[in-house]
């Protein structure tokens, strides 16, 4: 039978061990919060599920990680968009070519769109071009005016980014904004044997719409931007950050650049084939319009 002294000694030891365990847990949580805070500087609005995959905390599940981050006010709030940037052409010269399309590599489908960004007391405009299969931003441009030359600048950068690569199977997809039928823009696409496709509804360019939100709401809105020059500087930096460091669920939590590098080691027969959304109603109307042209 144990003596009272032995019991008291055991009790003190257990208490000390418990306190040490709690202290270590607190230190571990603080270290995790510090890591989240550091990542928030680079990725201000990256989802907590994705941050969990970047931090990879030891002995902490995802739900506990999210609860911890939320308790420290390290969650995110979604922003809303209000500004119109698309002034469509009534021309039906370019159809939606994405019906039934399956892609399994880069340089098969590029998408582009224009979005606005409020700075101090006025709007500036941003053009982005993305390779859909890898989600990599290959062209971008910031401008003080909603003009077609900004789109030309983004396209020239995209062509420079993909210089030396095969583009003969590539489709360029956008909305029907007047900037995308600008003569110099169309000529650049045709000179590089790139097919031109245009959406009939906003839902048929959803990849671009989502990218706009990511760049503005996860990055630029959290920078101190007062001028166009500062916007250009931060856009360059944040596009690089997005391409190199932002994980994507659809890319097995790899960044776009990491995913493109992995493709070189993955035979096409083993790659995921990606389908693109097309509104069936507009496709029917488009086919009907094509038939009318024949008569």
From TrEMBL:
<dbReference type="GO" id="GO:0003676">
    <property type="term" value="F:nucleic acid binding"/>
</dbReference>
<dbReference type="InterPro" id="IPR012337">
    <property type="entry name" value="RNaseH-like_sf"/>
</dbReference>
<dbReference type="Pfam" id="PF13683">
    <property type="entry name" value="rve_3"/>
</dbReference>
<dbReference type="InterPro" id="IPR048020">
    <property type="entry name" value="Transpos_IS3"/>
</dbReference>
<dbReference type="InterPro" id="IPR036397">
    <property type="entry name" value="RNaseH_sf"/>
</dbReference>
<feature type="domain" description="Integrase catalytic">
    <location>
        <begin position="95"/>
        <end position="264"/>
    </location>
</feature>
<dbReference type="GO" id="GO:0015074">
    <property type="term" value="P:DNA integration"/>
</dbReference>
<keyword id="KW-1133">Transmembrane helix</keyword>
<dbReference type="InterPro" id="IPR050900">
    <property type="entry name" value="Transposase_IS3/IS150/IS904"/>
</dbReference>
<feature type="transmembrane region" description="Helical">
    <location>
        <begin position="140"/>
        <end position="159"/>
    </location>
</feature>
<dbReference type="Pfam" id="PF00665">
    <property type="entry name" value="rve"/>
</dbReference>
<protein>
    <submittedName>
        <fullName>Transposase InsO family protein</fullName>
    </submittedName>
</protein>
<keyword id="KW-0812">Transmembrane</keyword>
<keyword id="KW-0472">Membrane</keyword>
<dbReference type="InterPro" id="IPR001584">
    <property type="entry name" value="Integrase_cat-core"/>
</dbReference>
